[in-house]
Amino acid sequence: MAIIQILKNELAKILDESDPSFQPVVTLQDAINGWLNAISKYMLTIVNVPPLGHPAGLAAATPVLASMNLPGAALVAIPGAFQAYAGALALGVPLPATALPPPSPFVLVLPPASASVAIDAIAALVATWTVTGTVTIPPAMPVPWS
Questions:
Q1: pLDDT digits 0-9 by tens, 98-115
Q2: Dist. CA 83–CA 144, nearest whole Å
């Protein structure tokens, strides 16, 4: 399964009521948990970044997602949560390797016409953004997160 499809499947669980795996988001905590699952399952598929920073990534993304309780805040909180997770993930790369997270968060512009369009758009943005992060294991040159 392609990495981007993993993210799409997780997003469908929280965004697409017509998807058989849809889990209704009733509370803010439901939304936070759904987005944390989507972020972590996607980021765990990045094969050239060791998984040591993933617990710290979850911890960093959680308070950012908690700001979604404000009107319109999700458009900022979601990219911010991906950025926070990626920053913590990069810090968890053991020496002698070094990792740089993607340099800035992506920008969400919603609402789209449908949940499937939103899922495709978010997944494409995240996939394009993620590969701007790099990992270097000396003496090799930096390679994109993939």
A1: 888 998 878 887 666 788
A2: 16
pLDDT tens-digit map of 47-59: 677 777 888 989 9
Distance CA 136, CA 48 (A): 9
Sequence ranges of the domains in the chain: 3-144
Going by C-alpha positions, the residue among 67, 59, 50 that lies closest to residue 88 is 59
| More confident of the two residues 16 and 48 | 16
For CA atoms 101, 126, 80, 40, give the dihedral sign.
negative
C-alpha 121/C-alpha 128 separation (Å) is: 11
Phi and psi dihedrals of 136, rounded to 5? Answer: -130, 125
Q: What is the pTM of this model?
A: 0.88
> Quick one: pLDDT at residue 110?
66
Dihedral Cα 21, 107, 65, 49, nearest 10 deg: 80
Q: What is the dihedral of CA 66, 69, 71, 75, to 10 degrees?
A: 30
Q: Identify the CA nearest to 93 among candidates 46, 59, 141.
A: 46
